[in-house]
Amino acid sequence: MTKSRNKDQQGTDDQYGGFHAGFAVLAGRPNAGKSTLTNALVGQKVAITSAKPQTTRHTIRGIVHRENFQLILVDTPGLHRPRTLLGQRLNDLVAATLSEVDAIGFCLPANEKIGPGDRFIAKQLANVGNKPIVALVTKTDLVDRQALTEQLLAVAQLGREVLGAQGWADIVPVSAADGFQVETVSTVLAGFMPPSPPLYPDGELTDEPVAVMVAELVREAALEGVRDELPHSLAVVVEEIIPREGRAEDNQFLDVRVNLYVERPSQKAIIIGRAGSRLQEVGSAARKGIEALLGTRIYLDLHVKVAKDWQRDPKQLVKLGF
Ligand SMILES: Nc1nc2c(ncn2[C@@H]2O[C@H](COP(=O)(O)OP(=O)(O)OP(=O)(O)O)[C@@H](O)[C@H]2O)c(=O)[nH]1
């Protein structure tokens, strides 16, 4: 975490006029709805969402601004049993993130039975020790009242199993899709934030570097429709974002140069498509998102490269920013 609370900034309620601010993490297994909930809480799209697990590689923060609190959300990559070196790094990242937050929101989908994966994560979270863990039962729009009640009981039981008699700090059912209880989630989590002045300027939604957000937009566009073929094999690196020089009419444009790394030539062919047709579509979809993000027009230059087996190669992982 790049920004943390300065010790001098911690104080009493009176000192900051009742204002509270701090960090919370949304944990949970892949596909549990963490990114979607982050976006719903922040009110703007900041984290990539996808039907495929583990699309969130970077720890993207969204900032929830309210009159009397500021909640800085960390959207973790799916916490899971490591399978590749990349998986191991993701888990290290998650562990480091968890030790620095003021509260944990543990996402459990309402429409799926609690499984070994959830139990594994619950135990990991409990091991962090001394952090309030709020169970968030997500996607409630997908189940009826009866099924939701049963899931809430099962979640409460899991809390007693891993945390002892006191169980979870709270349990909140929520649907990011229809907005049900989204505001409750933010106030419950904010209840665990210490008295503090605002940690970020009003209106700032994320402190993620622009390059990372640009890379996420390209990655999302490149995976559209081909997630089954290469869900985890794509890394996106922004090489440069610079003002376009030359003719006067070009001054309002930025040049954005981006490399897309895949593991095999066959995957490169999928991204590029017949005679480059698919890459063009990726480019125009990503360009729209990036222009909206940057508030200016851009020339987007995409290059697809093969970095053989990058997920298992420590040198490549460093080069690609993991
Ligand atoms: N119906 C419904 N679908 C949801 C809701 N929240 C998330 N989803 C869907 O569930 C899938 C996974 O959501 P994500 O937010 O990407 O899940 P995640 O936990 O961030 O996943 P990873 O990045 O893989 O860890 C996507 O297809 C979402 O559209 C919800 O409240 N209701």
Automatic annotation (TrEMBL):
Q: Tell me the organism.
A: Arthrobacter terrae
- Limits of the KH type-2 domain: 226-308
* CDD domains documented for this protein: Era, KH-II_Era
| Binding-site residues for GTP, renumbered to this chain | 28-35, 75-79, 138-141
Q: Which InterPro entries match?
A: G_ERA_dom, GTP-bd, GTPase_Era-like, KH_dom-like_a/b, KH_dom_type_2, KH_sf_prok-type, P-loop_NTPase, Small_GTP-bd
The cross-references to SUPFAM superfamilies, in alphabetical order and at most eight, read:
P-loop containing nucleoside triphosphate hydrolases, Prokaryotic type KH domain (KH-domain type II)
Write the record's keywords in alphabetical order, separated by commas: Cell membrane, Cytoplasm, GTP-binding, Membrane, Nucleotide-binding, Ribosome biogenesis, RNA-binding, rRNA-binding
Q: Where is this region: G5?
A: 174-176
Q: How is it placed in the membrane, per its record?
A: Peripheral membrane protein
User: How is the quaternary structure described?
Assistant: Monomer.
Where it sits in the cell: the answer is: Cytoplasm; Cell membrane
**One GO term of the biological process aspect:** ribosomal small subunit assembly
Q: Where is this region: G4?
A: 138-141
Molecular function per GO: GTP binding; GTPase activity; ribosomal small subunit binding; small ribosomal subunit rRNA binding
A cellular-component GO term for this protein: cytosol
Era-type G domain mapped to chain residues: 20-195
What this protein is called in its record is: GTPase Era
Map out region (G1) in residue numbers.
28-35
